[in-house]
Specification:
The chain contains 12 helices and 3 strands, in the order αααααβαββαααααα. The protein has helices at 12-22, 30-36, 52-58, 65-75, 96-99, 113-123, 177-193, 197-208, 222-236, 238-244, 258-263, 276-285, and strands at 110-111, 148-149, 169-170. The longest helix is centred in the middle third of the chain and has 17 residues, at 177-193.
Length: 296
């Protein structure tokens, strides 16, 4: 189905859009376009790389299992999900309806105006970059420029970045997010180069927090974890925690203990978590863990 070649760091959905444009099918009703191409109609979200809808498009590329995994890593923000599950690849999908529950980061599609100009000069077309859609990314790692977005880009219409140059606006950057930008890109680069790093860093986190015992952890540990959560909030700042998780906003009657939810293995905490839970803990402990020294 998708015959256009994926460009460097191009998100799979971007190639899907270019395929529709180049095939002369833009005049067809969108739902009908999905139907005649034998793809389930769905909205295109920027940060749900493990949902079955996106995987169905990748499978239309007639790739081998190894090529599918490579395509996921190189052309979606899936690398970070290796922190949540070792099952990245064709065997594992995650439904859209619960994947982003409680996640407070901006989920709109975004682009770098300098990338738009450079991509059009080099490739003749602008396209949506996968790296721009890592959790909390707001600065282009190539041009060090604030990314631009628009409220109508909460889901992606069949458009490319150059269509938004006149209407999109720069994203706002909070003080705590300055340190998050290089952090998130370095984590992505680390996992792509070494897919086993997530396993090692998680083992080190459990050792550092003294929770290596068999899961689930005993409920009696909860008091200690509540203390750890307060320390995490004090170290990172309330603005950072609220910027990452909706449950951490001031005034919320019940705040999720991010560390307990991630590490305890309790029944209500055993489901696959969004990688932001692990990323927040790594961000907090990055100065303390030997596995994270290259992230500083």
């Amino acid at each position: 189905m998708i015959r256009v070649g994926l460009l460097p760091d191009e998100h799979v959905y971007s190639a899907f859009i270019r395929e529709r444009m180049l095939s002369g099918q833009m005049h067809i009703n969108t739902k009908r376009f999905f139907e005649i191409n034998d793809i389930v109609y769905h909205q295109m979200h920027s940060q749900l790389p493990l949902n079955k809808d996106l995987l169905s498009i990748i499978r239309k590329m007639a790739l081998s299992p190894e090529q599918i995994l490579h395509t996921q890593l190189a052309h979606t923000p899936v690398s970070l999900w290796l922190l949540s599950t070792p099952l990245c690849g064709a065997e594992y999908t995650m439904p859209n309806h619960n994947a982003l529950a409680g996640i407070n980061i901006d989920k709109r599609w975004r682009f770098c105006p300098q990338c738009v100009a450079a991509d059009k000069a080099l490739h003749g077309v602008s396209y949506w970059h996968s790296a721009h859609h890592l959790c909390g990314a707001k600065i282009c790692p190539i041009h060090d420029q604030i990314l631009h977005t628009h409220d109508e880009l909460k889901v992606l219409p069949f458009t490319l970045p150059h269509h938004w140059l006149d209407s999109a606006e720069p994203m706002t950057l909070q003080p705590w997010e300055v340190a998050w930008q290089p952090f998130i890109y370095r984590v992505d680069k680390t996992i792509k180069a070494d897919p086993l790093w997530p396993n090692r860093v998680k083992v080190q986190i459990r050792r550092y927090l003294d929770c290596e015992s068999q899961l689930p952890l005993k409920q009696s540990e909860r008091t200690r974890f509540d203390q750890l959560a307060r320390q995490m909030t004090q170290d990172l700042g309330q603005e950072c925690m609220a910027g990452l998780f909706s449950s951490q906003r001031l005034g919320r009657s019940r705040q999720t203990n991010i560390i307990w939810a991630t590490l305890s293995g309790q029944v209500n905490s055993a489901k696959i978590r969004h990688p932001l839970f692990w990323l927040a803990i790594i961000f907090w402990l990055r100065n303390e863990l030997s596995e994270c020294q290259h992230l500083l």
